[in-house]
């Protein structure tokens, strides 16, 4: 899905990752589920690129529905995988996420999410064997000049990835625009969050980017003021 010149989404409102390109190649933010491989190839083709143009992957965190294609890209195509140092063990599969409450849910949206994950490789994750760690404030030498913004809460090493060349910020699960367990749409807190209060506190850093595209791992892209999206997340949390 083309969002803007040199900015595409891979996947859909259930599970999404993103591509940003420039004259040096393509950066991928998150890698969704393993079964979205054909979606990745199709979006690269729509950009006039190929898998050989990928220069790096940046993971917003280490959960399984964000790392699905990472090891295939690293192993078969030499694409380096970047993740915050606090989520590196989770991304490599050597540290499991803590058990957290699922909270409110509805049968239909849960079935749709689990069904999609099951049919797209979500039950058997191949973890990346090697990752490169990053930290808050790093500007990576990759297409789009991605800047790492620490947004801990969903996980200890959750990051947002600011892409200033296209006016976008990829937020992973720092917020959602489609709650996978309830089907509620619009900016709100994401489920399966380790520390919900800390996650809300971290949103200030996303608002400060001034990005006009806020791109979550689940839900529709938000085209508007990042600060407005953050305000809506906090209002949703307060009303829950």
Question: Roughly what fraction of the amino acids lie in strands?
Answer: 15-25%
Helical content (DSSP H or I, runs of 4+): 25-40%
Output the helix-strand order: EEEEHEHEHHEEEEEEHEEH
Label the overall shape: globular
Rounded average pLDDT: 96
Q: Please describe the biggest sheet, giving its number of strands, its sense, and whether it closes into a barrel.
A: 7 strands, mixed
C-alpha termini separation: 32 Å
Describe the strand arrangement of the main beta sheet, using strand numbers: 1-2-3-4-5-6-7
What does this structure look like?
Helix 5 packs antiparallel against helix 6. The chain has 240 residues and is α/β, with parallel strands linked by helices. The protein is built from 6 helices and 14 strands. The strands form 3 sheets. The chain has a 7-stranded mixed sheet with strand order 1-2-3-4-5-6-7. Strands 8-9-10-13-14 form a 5-stranded mixed sheet, covered by helices on one side. The protein has a two-stranded antiparallel ribbon with strand order 11-12.
List the topology elements.
Elements (H helix, E strand, L loop, with lengths): L1 E3 L2 E5 L4 E7 L2 E5 L7 H10 L7 E5 L11 H8 L3 E4 L3 H5 L14 H13 L12 E3 L12 E4 L8 E5 L4 E5 L3 E3 L6 E4 L7 H12 L5 E4 L5 E2 L2 H14 L1
Parallel strand pairs: 4-5, 5-6, 6-7, 10-13
Antiparallel strand pairs: 1-2, 2-3, 3-4, 8-9, 9-10, 11-12, 13-14
Helix pairs in contact: 5-6
């Amino acid at each position: 899905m083309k969002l803007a010149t040199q900015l595409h989404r891979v996947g859909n409102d259930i599970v999404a990752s993103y591509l940003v390109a420039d004259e040096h190649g393509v950066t991928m933010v998150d890698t969704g589920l393993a079964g979205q491989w054909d979606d990745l190839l199709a979006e690269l083709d729509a950009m006039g690129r190929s898998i050989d143009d990928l220069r790096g992957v940046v993971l917003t965190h280490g959960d399984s529905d964000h790392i699905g294609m990472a090891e295939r890209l690293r192993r078969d195509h030499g694409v380096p995988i970047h993740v915050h140092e606090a989520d590196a063990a989770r991304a490599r599969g050597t540290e499991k996420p803590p058990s957290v409450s699922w909270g409110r849910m509805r049968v239909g949206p849960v079935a749709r999410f689990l069904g999609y994950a099951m049919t797209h490789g979500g039950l058997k994750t191949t973890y990346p064997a090697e990752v490169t760690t990053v930290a808050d404030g790093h500007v990576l030498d990759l297409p789009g000049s991605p800047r790492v913004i620490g947004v801990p809460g969903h996980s200890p090493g959750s990051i947002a990835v600011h892409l200033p060349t296209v006016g976008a910020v990829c937020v992973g699960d720092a917020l959602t625009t489609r709650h996978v367990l309830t089907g509620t749409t619009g900016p709100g807190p994401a489920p399966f969050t380790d520390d919900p209060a800390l996650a809300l506190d971290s949103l200030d850093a996303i608002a400060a980017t001034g990005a006009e595209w806020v791109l979550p791992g689940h839900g529709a892209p938000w085209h508007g003021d990042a600060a407005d999206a953050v305000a809506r997340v906090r209002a949703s949390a307060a009303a829950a």
